[in-house]
Design goal:
elongated, single chain, mainly alpha
């Protein structure tokens, strides 16, 4: 487990092409043309900053608890006492709760846990919470007809589909992909503004297209941890049970794999 060799993870677009959507976009009212060397430099600096941020993220209590909570949600969905088990985790559902409301409860449960045990969440912890909610909602959207109209029992059925080895692998890939996307977006906007002097995306349509391209790229990059997540989840639950300690250790290894993938992207740019 954890030693699967995938070779090059296939992607529809290189990281430098994603960066070019921002750095290469003309500033409203004109602007200086951006050179390929500028784009390459911005791409490399953003990857460096993201790798450093991911290393620190593995130690963040909010990130750790968010991932642990995902494992417990998946396991709880297998039980007839699903709502009671979620209640012990601080997630409160009613008979007519929707997937959208469920993801909001997950976010609030992490907040309550951190406020009770620590000083509160951090910026990186907030990124993890948002990534978890988006991962659940985006995968549920392919399994349910309506995120806002799904009744409570269907929410459980939807999450149960993510509680298998394959399902949790998909959930892990989506969570880590959206988490990395937030890091890259955070650092890219700052490196681009510092290098070129101003934000480059001016129209909402441009922002939407960039965000869509970034999500696809990061989901594809997180393919490196998909099988790893599923295998760890299945094996660990069977052999010893998943707890906060072993899920935190797994998180650190998964984030290291993602850092290695970003390093490879920098070398391939």
């Amino acid at each position: 487990m954890g030693h699967t060799r995938l070779g090059a993870v296939p992607k529809t677009r290189k990281w430098t092409e994603i960066v070019e959507q921002v750095a290469g976009s003309p500033v409203e009212g004109g602007g200086v043309a951006v050179s390929l060397s500028d784009i390459d430099w911005i791409a490399a600096r953003t990857l460096d900053a993201t790798q450093s941020g991911l290393e620190k993220a593995s130690k963040d209590p909010g990130v750790r608890y968010t991932f642990y909570l995902l494992t417990q949600i998946a396991l709880a969905s297998r039980s007839p006492a699903w709502k009671d088990l979620l209640g012990k985790l601080g997630i409160r559902l009613t008979e007519d709760s929707t997937v959208f409301e469920f993801t909001a409860e997950v976010h609030d449960a992490v907040d309550r846990y951190l406020n009770d045990t620590l000083a509160g969440t951090s910026d990186v912890g907030e990124m993890a919470q948002q990534a978890a909610g988006e991962a659940i909602a985006s995968l549920a959207g392919t399994r349910t007809p309506n995120l806002f109209g799904t009744m409570g029992v269907e929410v459980q059925d939807t999450i149960r589909s993510l509680s298998t080895k394959k399902g949790f692998g998909e959930l892990g890939q989506r969570f880590f992909g959206r988490f990395v996307a937030r890091f890259l977006n955070f650092y890219l906007s700052r490196v681009t503004a510092a290098t070129l002097g101003s934000p480059r995306l001016q129209q909402l349509g441009d922002v939407a297209r960039f965000n869509d391209a970034l999500k696809v790229h990061c989901d594809q990059s997180a393919r490196i941890v998909r099988d790893f997540c599923g295998e760890w989840y299945s094996k660990t639950e069977y052999q010893e049970g998943i707890d906060a300690d072993n899920s935190s250790r797994f998180l650190a290894v998964a984030l290291q794999k993602l850092r290695n993938e970003l390093e490879k992207q920098k070398a391939d740019s």
